[in-house]
Amino acid sequence: MDRTARHSETRYGNRPTMKDVAARAGVGLKTVSRVVNSEPGVTPDTERRVQEAIEALGFRRNDSARVLRKGRTASIGLVLEDLADPFYGPLSRAVEEVARAHGALLINGSSAEDPEREQELVLALCARRVDGLIVIPAGDDHRYLEPEIKAGIATVFVDRPAGHVDVDMVLSDSFGGSREGVAHLIAHGHRRIGFIGDQPRIHTATERLRGYHAAMADAGITVADGWVSLGSTEPERVRMAVEEMLSGPEPVTAMFAGNNRVTVTVVRVLAERERPVALVGFDDIELADLLGITVISQDAAAVGRTAAEHLFRRLDGADHATARVELPTTLIPRGSGELPPA
Amino acid sequence: MDRTARHSETRYGNRPTMKDVAARAGVGLKTVSRVVNSEPGVTPDTERRVQEAIEALGFRRNDSARVLRKGRTASIGLVLEDLADPFYGPLSRAVEEVARAHGALLINGSSAEDPEREQELVLALCARRVDGLIVIPAGDDHRYLEPEIKAGIATVFVDRPAGHVDVDMVLSDSFGGSREGVAHLIAHGHRRIGFIGDQPRIHTATERLRGYHAAMADAGITVADGWVSLGSTEPERVRMAVEEMLSGPEPVTAMFAGNNRVTVTVVRVLAERERPVALVGFDDIELADLLGITVISQDAAAVGRTAAEHLFRRLDGADHATARVELPTTLIPRGSGELPPA
DNA sequence: CATTCTGTTGACAACGTTGTCCAGGGCCTA
DNA sequence: TAGGCCCTGGACAACGTTGTCAACAGAATG
């Protein structure tokens, strides 16, 4: 087995190259390139011959080589927490649409809320020289991105702020939304209100908790021990937290759920109970309308679209100071948040 | 502006290359390559010097060049219908996990159920020389893939079969699941049962309809005009179809919904009605348990995992005949499918 | 001391494409 | 017919990496 043959095995299964096409069409290499890229300066007759050769050989341009030469990959990376989370589906889709409009492909990965995995993913994307990055951070220190950003990889952080690097951010108004939701419960007569949120490591979790405290303080209510529970969003954990808040001599009469996964579990637990408990959840959920769940809704698609548009504006050369956009949330009353205290 | 400077603008923002690292560390190019790839045969001292230079310059290997040289991209493409669809989130995530276990990245795109866009996406992925492809097809003719497959891009079709090409497929048992669901309704006393499904162009839609017809025939029921409606899954369209089936002198007493999006709309419409109508839906939905919706469930994550595992087995050299896996579905009774005829 | 062996290192070509630049032919004009 | 221009086409280098191979130093062996 000679060297050429050995090579071809590990390569792209012996795909024809422009050189092959050129040989078959009886033209020069560059002429093929011109045809493939629809560049001017090729007579119709030559072009036809080249096209025929392309067809016959099943040639397809090797974008890896192209990228190496041109320096742009026409792809962007999206690092999020979990593609399976219903919040990220629409976000991801919105990013994809914008990318498509700019002729770019989307490479994505899930960090599973693990800072190390986030970094690993981000750096892998940088090694591929994606033109830009959209990151929903899991960790809170992103200094590892500095050389990459300096080297020109446009970056936008989404949903949570970046730690120790100066980049564009697109966030939801977690504090304001949460404050509004809790105030809504207070307005309906509640004073003993529980808060169940995500892990305190996560920025949105603490922001939402801050909103809760602000609303309670606004109403002059002292938050009792045991009304606040932060931790994993595992159903087990949330279930225990809910049950604890509902037991004891002075159970809460209303709850605020810190994100969609928490809300789902809380709804399930409350459904098993007799005494009605008011509930407002952060993030909308499919079918929440039918279940009558009052929520603070953030428009995931709008978040994704905004982030992607910022990114491409950077890629198109905008070099103004880094921006921090905060998108408003909406309270959607559907019943669960308007229940009076039991 | 001289040529070098002009170039550097369009390139990766003047990122340092191995050559730069080599110069700074006072070693040869290949030695840097060895260090970067943890190849043996470098003394600790040399390695340290190289590492320092890498740190100092913020070097990161350019995977585009690497890919060009090695012929493997360590990435796979996933083409699905809509990332925002809750069915595809877990599927996509499962694919990603398998890819990650094999050290590959995932590039994905949505076809939006448009065959042309599907082809465009698939070919773009092939041009990037992804190692493998997982496709949820929108169209029904995939001969355009032939040269690609011949050239060695491993391909697995998911959820719907491929048209006119011989590739691995991982499907759900649409026919069987649908038949079981409709039989379930019949067992609960229904005879006038409506079917609302996706566009007939889509294979699963017709398979599910076939299951419906089979169950009806098994029970000796003649399907009346107006009990079957195939078309877009737009809420408007579905709503009209439901309302039509529920009006008239002999309205249906039960409905079978052909997929999750249809189910959601049907549930909404039925919720507005007084007379209860039984319902079984294909695909599970979050919170369906709380709403008491009986469904035929297919495990999206299992589908994705299976497909990805098949793909990587191919990439690892398996060259047995193409396989066609059909995963079973499960009926989950939750109330809506057990309602008696009104 | 000559020889072989082992292990480290670097020079060089190649991967497939695109940018630059030049050659040659046809056409127009003087 | 000579001179100039435009148009088409091709030769060649370069992108940043990795595989191959040879050179070299030092250790081990005769």
UniProtKB/TrEMBL annotation, chains A, B:
PROSITE patterns reported for this sequence = HTH_LACI_1 (PS00356), HTH_LACI_2 (PS50932)
InterPro entries, A to Z: HTH_LacI, Lambda_DNA-bd_dom_sf, Peripla_BP/Lac1_sug-bd_dom, Peripla_BP_I
Q: The HTH lacI-type domain covers which part of the protein?
A: 16-70
Q: Which GO terms describe its molecular function?
A: DNA binding
* GO biological process: one example: regulation of DNA-templated transcription
Instruction: Name residues in a coiled coil.
Output: none
Q: Which UniProt keywords apply?
A: DNA-binding, Transcription, Transcription regulation
Query: Superkingdom of the source?
Result: Bacteria
Per the UniProt entry, the signal peptide is: none
- Pfam families per the record? LacI (PF00356), Peripla_BP_1 (PF00532)
Q: What is this protein called?
A: LacI family DNA-binding transcriptional regulator
